[in-house]
Task: inverse folding
């Protein structure tokens, strides 16, 4: 069995096109096409439909995809374990993260880890809570940052409680408020993340019995911030996301207070290799040290 052909197939599926997959794999588009043709001949059925609009899985390819992800995940675990036995940590750790973690936590953790284990490579997928949970479930990532409780069959480690804060335009009628009453979200224009992404604000509002006056939806955290700056409405954001920013905003604690719990989800059972678990140790240590400061 040639695993490289299956890696090529998975890369094409994740990238959505042969051209982008070739760039990701560091080869020519012709080489990608040849590998796919060879794989389909071996399997005896087509796995991808190709058109000018891109590529998509056939029905047979859809059925095959979970097994392909499991196969490559097992192969990576095997490589990490063998490297660990040889005394040389190596392999690839695939990480799923949402914006605030990707911006504030991952760069220093990755820098320290790479200094100690220069032979370990990383693949970072950045998305929202729903994306990360999906990647964990289908095996696209080995470890992911989640909002707890998370709906995934993984080992989950609580890392930190992160306050939720109200963000408002400057010089609003709340300018002299020490804290922001959540009930005001029922009348003020509210800017929301998509429902699949907006676990934090939705949980806080539901716990307070508040139905927000949602006027805008977006998937991007920083788009929400920019829209609030322009006076289009108000929103609720985690404190970690706002850390170090200098936006033209008023930021207030909430009444009642609300928090999210950030956790680290590690692939269940034996799916996580030694390098993945070592990386998880570095994350826990970093967050603990930051909390102490």
Result:
């Amino acid at each position: 069995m040639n695993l490289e052909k299956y890696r090529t197939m998975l890369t094409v599926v994740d990238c959505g096109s042969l051209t982008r997959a070739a760039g990701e794999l560091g080869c020519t588009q012709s080489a990608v096409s040849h590998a796919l043709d060879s794989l389909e001949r071996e399997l005896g059925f087509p796995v991808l439909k190709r058109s000018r609009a891109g590529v998509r899985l056939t029905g047979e390819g859809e059925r095959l995809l979970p097994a392909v992800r499991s196969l490559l995940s097992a192969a990576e675990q095997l490589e990490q374990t063998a490297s660990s036995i040889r005394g040389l940590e190596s392999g690839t750790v695939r990480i799923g993260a949402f914006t605030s973690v990707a911006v504030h936590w991952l760069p220093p953790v990755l820098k320290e880890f790479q200094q100690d284990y220069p032979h370990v490579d990383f693949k970072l997928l950045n998305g929202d809570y729903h994306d990360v949970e999906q990647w964990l479930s289908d095996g696209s990532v080995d470890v992911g940052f989640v909002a707890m409780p998370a709906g995934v069959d993984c080992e989950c480690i609580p890392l930190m409680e992160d306050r939720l804060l109200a963000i408002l335009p400057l010089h609003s009628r709340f300018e002299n408020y020490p804290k922001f009453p959540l009930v005001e979200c029922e009348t003020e224009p509210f800017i929301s993340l998509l429902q699949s992404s907006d676990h934090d604000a939705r949980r806080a509002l539901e716990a307070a019995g508040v139905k927000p006056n949602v006027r805008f939806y977006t998937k991007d955290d920083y788009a929400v911030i920019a829209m609030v700056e322009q006076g289009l409405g108000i929103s609720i954001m985690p404190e970690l996301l706002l850390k170090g920013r200098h936006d033209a905003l008023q930021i207030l604690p909430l009444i009642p207070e609300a928090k999210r719990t950030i956790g680290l989800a590690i692939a269940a059972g034996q799916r996580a290799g030694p390098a993945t678990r070592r990386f998880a140790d570095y994350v826990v240590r970093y967050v603990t040290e930051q909390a102490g400061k």
User: Anything to note?
Assistant: The mean pLDDT is 89.
